[in-house]
Amino acid sequence: MKRHAKIDGPQTDRRLDGMAQGVLGQPLDRPDGPLKVTGRATYAAEVRLDRMVHGVLVRAPRVGTLNGFDTERVRGMAGVLAVLTEGLPRNSAQGAIAKSPPGNEGKAQYVGQPVALVVAETLEQATHAAWTLEVGIMPSIPVINPHAAPTEFPEKKQRDLGDLEAAMAEAAATLDETYHTPTLSSAPMEPHASIAEWDGERLTLHGAYQMLKFNRKQLAEALGIDPSAVRVLAPYVGGGFGSKLGISAEAVGAALAARMLGRPVSVVMHRRQVFEMTTRRSQTQQRIRLAADVDGHLLGIGHDALVSNLPGETFSEPVQQGTDFNYAAPNRKVVHEVARLNLIACGSVRAPGEAVGVTMFEVAMDEMAHRLNLDPVEFRLRNIPDHDPLDGKPFSSNMLAQALTEGAQRFGWRHQPPRSRREGEWWIGTGMSAAVRVNMLTESEARVTLTPEGRAKVETDMTDIGTGTYAILTQIAAEMLGLPVAQVETVLGDTDLPPASGSGGSFGAASSGSSVYLACLEIRSQIAARLGIAEEDLTLKDGHAIHANRTIPLSQILDAPITTEGHVEPGDSGKIARNATYGAHFAEVAVNDVTGETRVRRMLGTYACGRVLNVKTATSQCHGGLIWGIGMALTEELIHDPRDGHAVNRDLAEFHIPVNRDVPDLEVYLLPERDDWANPIQSKGIGELSICGAGASVINAIHAACGVRIRDLPATPDKVLAGLMQIES
Amino acid sequence: MNITLRVNGESHDLDLDPRVSLLDALRHHLHLTGTKKGCDHGQCGACTVLLNGRRINACLTLACMHDGDDITTIEGIGADGLTPLQQAFIEHDGFQCGYCTPGQICSAVGMAEELRQGWPSHVTDDLTADPELTRDEIAERMSGNLCRCSCYPGIVNAIRQSLGEQA
Ligand code: FES
Ligand code: FES
Fold it and tell me: For B97-127, how does the pLDDT look when each residue is reduced to its tens digit (9 = 90+)?
């Protein structure tokens, strides 16, 4: 039996609050933990197959028309089995699109584009041969500078409400500043990897992917076969952060080569290829305008963004997604411009849009608070809208005020003028920012089986990319079916199982969680029917049904396992009400007066994400966001050579993600909330909210510490030092 | 090239291409895939193993340089039940995706020995006294092991707890 729900409005029954097992929300250890700490969890490249050979991708060294490869020479090298120069995609597929990624049409459109695959008996032979292969290219002049590029203005992303120019002209206080964020990279620790094996016409791909039901279709179309002939397996994924949403060249290459050779082929990207051949977060230029009255009420908000992507890609970093609803103001203008460049493809990276958009907007808000001589917390509190400022929709829930107040109190927030505290060489200051992120529900299905012995199995092609899916789906089923968590097994990452939302956009936990909830609700109904009672009157706990003072073991109710399916679909709920998550960040930094170095000394985040499914894994997700905020604020920047656009620092030695010592003690507080509009489990996304503005709290703290305002991320010592010298001169 | 590697107490005779790194020997030839490859360039620490008791990046050394050496990989740690350190990683959620985790754990084991032997680090104030097991000492000494899931708070707490209990 299948239980289906389309979410057209508030889900007010809050059934999960009435369950008896008491495991949901608890800090359950990850069920996959023992495998991960002993090295026994097998990631994509770690499947052991007979006769497997290795493929290594070859990059385009410059932009131009592909003009032949010296394949003959390479084919003669030791161990080489094949040199593939056709059929590889130009770039990765975008997320949640059931289409093949684009082909290269005989061109190298950016430096680093995958253009060939060399396959050999061993990895060493394939690597040597791939390095040897010469790629013939008739060079053309690449477009690298977004200001000198053809641009487009996607119609759906422009906003114009009231008259911003007039508001700016009449306001008591205004701000008009331009901010920049650089190209950023997901850089998951597991490089993109695929092992392909064919059994006749059927392909099995062991891949490192986030959204399997789409990945299967993307791969099928790229190979010209039916999706039913493709099975994708991804039980463990070593991080994704958006870069594994859509299939990349390594998956297509492995599948093509394995078909050609009749042997399993493993293709693992080298770390430098991960930077070039998967997607990046676009660099952004953001002009932010604010107009306010003397009391600090906003009258106008303007947010113009210039982002980039390759020609033909539909994705453009939705920088202003949070600006639509973060603060009230009658006059609003958003201009969204996309430059077409010959650079690495852009795609979703953790919290596409708000990660950079909210961050720079929150820096602007800090600047504006100073102009108004207002405490920045108070300034934000004065501008929280009571309905969606664009179209008057109600909020499903808006917890920004609570997040700000609670956070300020827990952090011990005190607003002080810049340069008021110094310890030796170090200036000390605190900064804050708000956090907002849209919340989504996407279609998801799951199957749940309950046995008379009181064991349950959850099955779905959902992925756990570190997000805690194994833990939370186990907990939802245990809670609904009244079982100890040890009695529930969750099986993920296999397209032979019911298709799930996949992991992306912070919708995974709530969407796949809702499908498991629905399947369990159906099981509960069937048990209740056998007992002749209403489902609402049934209590399940520790493998027993409890009703009217009777406690009956499941074995007396069931004579065979029950299997059900749950299927959730988004409906009108998201259209009627504005669904989002809210939070606040606080940071204390020390800025060195001599070197311009910034060290973060402590950080705190308060977040409201609806029902918390596992407080331990949710907190870890928030730590992740805060730390990505530190990286974005201080060190992360993928630099493009201005001549040919190649990513200069495309490895982990030069692209500086935070290391252990860059991270101070972090404090996370999750506000109690139920969002009935969101879905039947009243839960919302948490994996991305904590990066939306986290970096701004650090940038604002730098200003509070030493008076230097950084508008161009990251705040590296050279920029801070230049600011210090300017202040002192 | 013919070499013998002692891995987790067991001897393996291997005939390897001289270009095979120690990491690839473990992963591809001995099928010990617990040791991870994050960069292959000594930049991330995912491949950390113990070589004659000291932590090294297995991607930065060739297998043929280790004839007769004693290597401990994650598969050799807690093989008969989780060690307190592994248990603490689970309890403190010192990982999310788990890809950096074997390297973190091997690195922590190596680091504990360095601490025990009194090796100072960049944050040790007194170079002659025995370093203390502070938060900063652990964070500093573990900074060669990157974690993009950013589980550093859990990693530090897990190490602190398990080493603190041993001390
Ligand atoms: S794989 Fe060896 S340090 Fe990264
Ligand atoms: S747990 Fe994912 S990289 Fe460390």
Answer: 999 999 999 999 999 999 999 999 999 999 9
**In CATH terms, is domain B84-162 a member of 1.10.530.10?**
no
Q: Answer whether B100 contacts ligand 1 (Cβ < 6 A).
A: no
Nearest bound ligand to CA A660? 2
Is residue B97 in contact with ligand 2, taking CB distance under 6 Å?
yes
Residues facing A204 on adjacent strands = A197, A231
Q: Which ligand sits closest to the CA of A617? A: 2
pLDDT band at residue B165, thresholds of 50, 70 and 90? confident
Q: Do B99 and A663 touch (CB under 8 A)?
A: no
| A603 to chain B: closest CA residue | B153
Structure tokens of B49? 């193993």
Report how far apart, in Å, the C-alpha atoms of A171 and of each of A130, A165, A368, A511 are. 62, 10, 12, 44
Instruction: Please report, for residues A358, A411, A419, the alpha-carbon distance to residue A415 in angstroms, rounded to integers and kept in the order given.
Output: 21, 12, 12
Which residue among B93, B139, B148 places its CB closest to the CB of A661?
A: B139
Average pLDDT over residues A411-418: 97
Pocket lining: B50 vs ligand 1, CB cutoff 6 Å = no
Instruction: Give me the domains of chain A, ranges plus CATH numbers.
Output: 2-21+454-566 (3.30.365.10), 44-141+193-271 (3.30.365.10), 348-439+579-728 (3.30.365.10)
Atom of ligand 1 nearest to the CA of B58: 2
pLDDT recorded at residue A439: 97
- SS3 state of residue B90: helix
Smallest Cα distance from B155 to chain A, Å: 9
Cβ neighbours of A203 (radius 10 Å)? 22
- pLDDT tier at A234 (50, 70, 90 boundaries)? very high
- For A601, nearest residue in chain B (alpha carbons): B136
Listed by start position, the domains of chain B span 2-76, 84-162
Q: Where residue A461 falls among pLDDT bands split at 50, 70, 90?
A: very high
Q: Please tell me if the CB atom of residue B48 comes closer than 6 angstroms to any atom of ligand 1.
A: no
- For residue A548, what pLDDT is reported? 86
Residue A566 contacts residue A520 (beta carbons within 8 Å): yes
Cβ-proximal residues to A574 (8 Å cutoff; 6+ apart), any chain: A7, A440, A441, A677
Residue A128 and residue B152: Cβ atoms within 8 Å? no
Q: Which helix or strand (DSSP H or E) is residue A702 part of?
A: helix A694-706
Q: What is the pLDDT of residues A680-722, one digit of tens each?
A: 999 999 999 999 999 999 999 999 999 999 999 999 999 999 9
Cross-chain Cβ contact A124/B99 below 8 Å = no
pTM of the full structure: 0.98
Ligand 1 site, residue B57, Cβ cutoff 6 A: yes
- Is there a catalytic annotation at residue A479? no
Tens of pLDDT along A261-314? 999 999 999 999 999 999 999 999 999 999 999 999 999 999 999 999 999 999
Q: Which CATH superfamily is domain B2-76 in?
A: Beta-grasp domain (3.10.20.30)
Interchain pair B82, A38: CB under 8 A: yes
Of the candidates A237, A271, A661, the beta carbon closest to that of B140 is on: A661
The SS3 call for residue B164 is helix
Q: What is the pLDDT of residue B164?
A: 85
Q: What is the mean pLDDT of residues B9-37?
A: 98
Please state, for a pLDDT cut of 70, what percent of chain A lies above it.
100
For CA atoms A544, A550, A556, A558, give the dihedral sign: negative
How far does the centroid of ligand 2 lie from the alpha carbon of residue A240, in Å? Answer: 10
For chain B, counts of helices (H) and of strands (E): 5, 5
Dump the DSSP string for A533-561.
S-GGG-EEETTEEEETTEEEEHHHH-SS-
pLDDT above 80 (res A367):
yes
Which residues from B are below 8 Å from A48, CB to CB? 31
Residue B166 has pLDDT above 70, yes or no: no
